[in-house]
Structures are given as C-alpha cells and as structure tokens.
Amino acid sequence: MIPTYFLELADTNIKKDVYKSYFDTQYPDTSDCIVLDKQIGDIEKDIDEIRKRELAKKIECNCFPSSHDWIKGIQVRTSSKKYLQALLIKKQNLSSVSDCRNKTETIRQEETAQLVTQTSAEAEQRILPKTNQKLYVTIGIGAAVIVTSLVLYLKNKK
After folding, report:
1. Which residues constitute the domain of residue 54?
2. How does pLDDT run across 9-31, given as a tens digit for each residue?
3. Number of folded domains that form the chain
4. pLDDT digit string, tens, across residues 88-97
5. Is 2 left (phi over 0), alpha (psi -120 to 50) or beta?
6. Do the domain assignments include residue 31?
C-alpha cells in the first residue's frame, strides 16, 4: 500500500531513491510463486490508486496547470507510478521465467484434490455407520421372512 504522504507530497527535492527504497522493501525479490503473484496484484492495485488520485487531484485543484505545487505533486506521483510500473514488469517477467502460472495452478489443483478427498472421507465416516445399520436391519428382516416362509412351507407339505 502506498503511504498517503507519497501521494500528497509536493516537494520535488525528495530523491527518487526514497520511492525506490520504500517500494523495494514493500516488494522484496522472491522466487516463491505465490508471494510473487500476490506482489503483482498489490503493485497493480497501487498503480490504480495513483491513477485515481491523479484524476481526483486534477478535478479538485481549481488552479491553472502552471501552479507550482500542482506540478510538483504530479511529478511526485508520476515518478512513483513509473517506478511501480517498471517494478511490475520486472515481477511479471520473473513470474513468466519461473513458470509461476503453472506452479500456482498445480498447487491450487492439489489443494482442491486434497480438500475433496478429506471431505469425502469425513462424509464416508459419517454416513457408513447409518448405512450399515440399515443394511443389517434389512438382512435380518429378509432372513426372518425366509425362515418363516420355509417353516410354513414345510408345515403345509406334511
């Protein structure tokens, strides 16, 4: 998330290294695909936030484009947006090279399969005792009917 003071600053004396160091600590280099995927999403959200604030500043600023503070504010937001866009491209390239899309999809499929297996096992443990009880009752009634039929048949045959 971008600190508000980065977006509200109107001082061009701030070094670009401030943005660079801040964003580098927020989005450190990683080879973990899940972390990388989250970082890409967060960077995209930050870029959108800067764009929205740029539009809001243009609308709420009732001043001419030559206003010094307004221009400084645009420079601050533009430099941080450009760095974030470069960082986004770097992270997306790293994601492509690492084949992260396939890895994360495989991880999600494995988690889904594990969840289905676990849910099925729990359902089986919950349902089987009731089913077995019904099965034993049905077998008992069937056996009683067969024995009763056999007894009646043998009595009638004599």
Report:
1. 4-98
2. 444 455 556 677 778 888 888 88
3. 1
4. 898 888 888 8
5. beta
6. yes
